[in-house]
Specification:
Order of helices and strands: EEEHEEHEHEHE
Strand content: 15-25%
Oligomer: single chain
Number of helices: 4
Radius of gyration: 17 Å
Strand order of the largest sheet: 5-4-3-6-7-8
Structural class: alpha/beta
Number of strands: 8
Distance between the termini: 55 Å
């Protein structure tokens, strides 16, 4: 991936054609669409997700639990060996929890934070050496819940606020290393996303 003139002469930008891109949460609806759009733009797209969320036998997808840091490090090392570079990391994995604050115990808050925030941290740490070399980019698929008090899913709001705050701060820090940071804030999308089940009410 190179920086400079964007396709179509639209000024400075990032050229996707020929880039190696990794998408977390690739088994979800947004992740699958991102994979298709990246490939249509000429990128080599690699999708990460839990084994049960991935299409069987498709070499474009790699099973990886992003809440398992050793597994994340091993996965990115294997991708480095396989492709020789990494230009774009798209952090799309997330876990929601619907209900009132009292509907979710501390374990459920932890589960949402582990996937939505700490999973993004683990993948970014593992990818950064490659992104520095390629002067690549991290794209966080955030949410309106990352900056607004969305009702009815407090663990998700907390996790999205956390990851949005982190990557907002990282934008300036990583700019000096030539790594770009983009944050995208979708509202509600069709198809939903994975959720933690609420605990039983007495």
């Amino acid at each position: 991936m190179t920086r400079g003139e964007a396709p179509g002469g639209r000024g400075p930008g990032t050229v996707i054609d020929g880039a190696v891109a990794v998408v977390t949460g690739a088994g979800g609806q947004i992740g699958r669409r991102l994979m298709a759009d990246l490939e249509a733009a000429g990128a080599v797209a690699v999708g990460l997700d839990l084994p049960g969320a991935l299409p069987a036998g498709d070499q474009r997808y790699v099973a990886c639990d992003i809440t398992d840091e050793p597994q994340v490090r091993g996965t990115f090392a294997a991708l480095r060996d396989r492709y020789g570079r990494l230009d774009l990391l798209i952090l799309c994995a997330g876990l929601s929890a619907i209900g009132r604050f009292e509907d979710h115990d501390l374990d459920m808050h932890r589960a949402v934070m582990e996937v939505t925030h700490l999973g993004a941290v683990a993948c970014t740490l593992a990818a950064l050496p490659d992104l520095r070399r390629s002067h690549g980019r991290v794209v966080l698929i955030g949410s309106v819940a990352g900056f607004a008090p969305v009702l009815g899913r407090p663990p998700y709001v907390a996790a999205k606020h956390a990851v949005t705050g982190l990557f907002t701060a990282l934008r300036t820090e990583l700019r000096a290393a030539g790594v770009g940071v983009t944050i995208v804030h979708p509202t509600f999308v069709t198809g939903g996303m994975a959720e933690v089940a609420r605990r039983s009410q007495e």
